[in-house]
């Protein structure tokens, strides 16, 4: 028995690019060696990245994996544990971990528990493994598990019975509010219960709608946290095992983030990774003087830098003067490119062209939608001409009830606040203002009553319940999966609940054509909530 | 042993509406009794419909299923076999069939083989069954299987070993080109191999992107086809088993459809069901004088009737006079409401508003997209004002390579030709003209070179390879999953293949925001091809 060092590589892969990922893993292994590490572990499926979706089914994946193994075989004098897709001779495909040293594969572990719920579709791609992997190294007995495995008590118990001292857990565990601490709490209890050291390494980075927060950690079998890596940061974290004390020495202890900081920084990371990895030079967004676009602008600037962000105010008859002022002020404070494009002539030309068709039909939301679509088309024109990605600014409350215009304010490639309820939008705006010397979002934007400004003196509350009530009903219906009757039974007004539920159900078609956006809740509108469009399910019980 | 009659209910459920489905099943059972049937079988999951997606996870499903069982218990004097979601006391959820008589459940079968590939996600929802169900009735031994089960030779063999004479197979098997005949051919071989009678009943109707074609059948154990129900039609089909001859008497033999008829009628069914079940009074589409919108119009009229269809021609500077003439002629021939809305003033107002931003930037596709988005916004305005659903008219070839404008010609709730390659669009147009006395699509629309008419003298072939080459490459890349290198090795021009593959990969973001549309191939752009947007996979091997 001797002392040794483990490096946890909190790694941000480029999904699908095995060559680039292997190269980066090689560099990280060399860096770990410089820090005297004996062992380096990478997250689940680190070679291709998670989730690679149907890329996992491409026939040439096996060849690409072999090539990447050749790259990794250049790593010398350190044991490397990493995730890869294991396609076997008998036609099976596993979500696997390899233990490699000096180009030799010492062992392969196939994930046993495949999540196939929520955002996960692993049974579409993988077969289940049925065997544990244990290896001795430096006089210490290691086991390997992959993500969902460690949430199955039966699986971990079996491994514990093999006299393993430290379990290396490779993860690609997506973020949701509170998840970083929840993992640590659960794993601390598990480590103590089974008397195991747990080295938990998690992927970091944004991938489409998923945020991976990292927050890797190492828990000693007595429940002591020997390492807590920072949330949302790529990096290499080395922990030492002291043979004499038979325990891991306490290393870096990154602070846990407060809820608003956790959400805000997650949105920043997701936006940065989406924009940069898609190859856009920058972003453009419509700045309305309202709080959603104001917060989106702040996130964009924090993600990319002011020089990469263009904001456009597109006023019309119903736009308040203070909206224009506040938009201009924020743009100035944040130092972004700002322009004003009035939409009167465009809306007029649409109305004139449609007049022969509309005749004397009464004015309704059609005319409001024309304003939103004029703005959407302007933003897309600027995007097409200069290459910046359009950020969509709608929040989860609006998207839930369809309080948004398809092809209008919904245009864009990334919807930063897609999974953020309006009540949380307010909290995030206040949080962002609290962390800089002068507020980046004008106070008036936060304090004035929300309005879409699509008709005279319009307020959101004219057609929607107050946001605290709306969000509570939405949370119960969407996140908690309660029925209409259940929600009414909780004490909410019957007519209001019926209206909200009906709107959520009816607006699935809008959400289906909306941009993707980062997931922060346990039930986002994405691969996680799959409802048919033609749908005869009646609200009620 | 005695003679008896089986009714196959080729049933079109309303997804999620268990009450309505149970009511219709009750009516069909009574109709079957009138025809002296002793047994009636419904498709897989007939009570909730297929696929119900995350409705299957709603907590109140169990109560709703119980209520529907009460409705069905009113059926007397006939054995009913139907599909339902079986949620057991121990928290398992199965895709099941019930055998019911006079309100008593005689047996329950839980599906053993759960497809979780392609368009299927059954492992997200269901546990696997592990037991066969066999019942004797009228001196005859029946077994029950559900859809995927009958494609597992091991499963069917086990059932055959229980001395079953007739297997009742409940299906919700989605259509793709040639599938109706393929099922019959495969099942004929299986019936003979295992000496089993197979009564195969399939769901019919459009459900979002899936078409269920019906084409139910009954094959005697000697391989004789005793029944072939028509493709795409709801109905009740009764077959008699003659005890003396110990075989099924030959009943209705619907003709197999030629390929183009099969596709065309499938698109008609899908469009009708989507529009009607979503509750739209009718549809509206942009008629450009090109073949895609011409074919979409014909399908819409055949699906809904001319009085439910509105067509709008939206000419601009680059629109040829013959385009306007041909559009007007087709609208007249088909008897649909037709209007013309010129878009010059709208495009001009956009250009003037954007001029201060664009400055002296050279003209590019931005200006083309403005035309497409002006048209999209006009269609959406008309849709919002009068309630008609916008049909999107793009084809699979265009969508594959992104030769279409997001929020422009891509607007709409249903994309009728989404899974139809351009070369098939031509075939379908000719087919449709061939079945009516006078052609409904003007000959010139079919014969002139395709053009988006977004810039002077533009032809599709200026920026794309000829459609027969393009479609062959797309088919190899998308349906056959060949790599770029594989396709080049087949003899296609390297530069052309590289360009096409790059375009397909890069335009995933457009497709992700596009309307749904009916699936007719083995690899549609829908739940069947799930690629990440941020995607570093390199073309090549």
Automatic annotation (TrEMBL), chains A, B:
Ligand binding (ATP): 286-293, 393
Domain CN hydrolase: 4-243
Amino acids binding deamido-NAD(+): 369, 398, 510
GO cellular component: cytoplasm
Example of a GO biological process term: NAD+ biosynthetic process
Enzyme class name: ligase
Residues the entry annotates as binding L-glutamine: 117, 173, 179
CDD domains, per database record: GAT_Gln-NAD-synth (cd07570), NAD_synthase (cd00553)
InterPro entries in UniProt: C-N_Hydrolase, C-N_Hydrolase_sf, Gln-dep_NAD_synthase, NAD/GMP_synthase, NAD_synthase, Rossmann-like_a/b/a_fold
SUPFAM superfamilies, per the entry: Adenine nucleotide alpha hydrolases-like, Carbon-nitrogen hydrolase
EC number: 6.3.5.1
Catalytic function, reaction form: deamido-NAD(+) + L-glutamine + ATP + H2O = L-glutamate + AMP + diphosphate + NAD(+) + H(+)
GO molecular function term, any single one: ATP binding
Superkingdom as given in the UniProt entry: Bacteria
Keyword Methyltransferase attributed: no
Keywords from the UniProt entry: ATP-binding, Ligase, NAD, Nucleotide-binding
Pfam families according to UniProt: CN_hydrolase, NAD_synthase
Record pathway: Cofactor biosynthesis; NAD(+) biosynthesis; NAD(+) from deamido-NAD(+) (L-Gln route): step 1/1
Protein family membership: In the C-terminal section; belongs to the NAD synthetase family. Belongs to the NAD synthetase family.
Summary of the function given for this chain in its UniProt record: Catalyzes the ATP-dependent amidation of deamido-NAD to form NAD. Uses L-glutamine as a nitrogen source.
Protein name according to UniProt: Glutamine-dependent NAD(+) synthetase
Species for this entry: Acinetobacter indicus CIP 110367
